[in-house]
Amino acid sequence: NLKVFLDMDGVITDFTGACEKLSEHMMVWYTADRDRFWKHITAAGVGFWSDMPWMAGGKELHGFLKSSGLHPTILSALPSPDRKMAMFYARKGKMEWLKKELGTPYANDAILCFRPEKALQSGTSRVLIDDNSSNTREWEEAGGTAILHKNADRTIKCLARIVKEEQK
Q: Residue 110: helix, strand or coil by DSSP?
């Protein structure tokens, strides 16, 4: 019995798009000036997270999971604890987004943790869909199956293959 874990930012929510709405320099700062990057996100408050647009293909991916009977558990990382307000806003905003877009059961079951803790959910018959290669690598090292998300079509094809294997 497969259990699917679904990342939010970069998979179903357009984190980069939301960043670029704050400032065209955001993705440069993400690499070059991380403090400045987080300062802008923190200043945007809960709304940065709760009003984030869907990722292209995000609704299709979620629809495929549901129609396959795979009710995914949301597994999303929070900003590190040294960024207290950013972490607080992210937790609150992600929960609001989930309630609004996917419904309260998704919000209630969601696991919001720090990035290195994601792999603690890994194991046999556990599938992670994530756009971060560190997460997919750590997940696989911990015994699970991971799909590195690039786009919805590719991820759906990978999932279909995994489901087929599982049914053998």
A: coil
**Are the C-beta atoms of residues 18 and 54 closer than 8 Å to each other?**
no
- Residue 41: how many CB atoms within 10 A of its CB? 22
* φ, ψ of residue 45 in degrees (nearest 5): 70, -160
Fold of 3-14+54-167: Rossmann fold (3.40.50)
First to last CA, the chain: 12
Span 76-100, pLDDT tens digits? 999 998 999 999 999 999 999 999 9
How many C-beta neighbours within 10 Å does residue 13 have?
22
Side by side, which strands form the sheet with 73-78? 111-114, 73-78, 3-6, 126-130, 145-148
Would you state the structure tokens that stand for residue 83, as one six-digit string? 């960024």
- The model's pTM: 0.96
Query: Do the beta carbons of residue 71 and residue 5 sit within 8 Å?
Result: no
State the residue for tokens 């590190």: 80
**What phi-psi label fits residue 144: left (phi over 0), alpha (psi between -120 and 50 degrees) or beta?**
beta
Cα gap 110→59, rounded to integer Å: 17
Q: Tens digit of pLDDT for each residue in 25-67?
A: 999 999 999 999 999 999 999 999 999 999 999 999 999 999 9
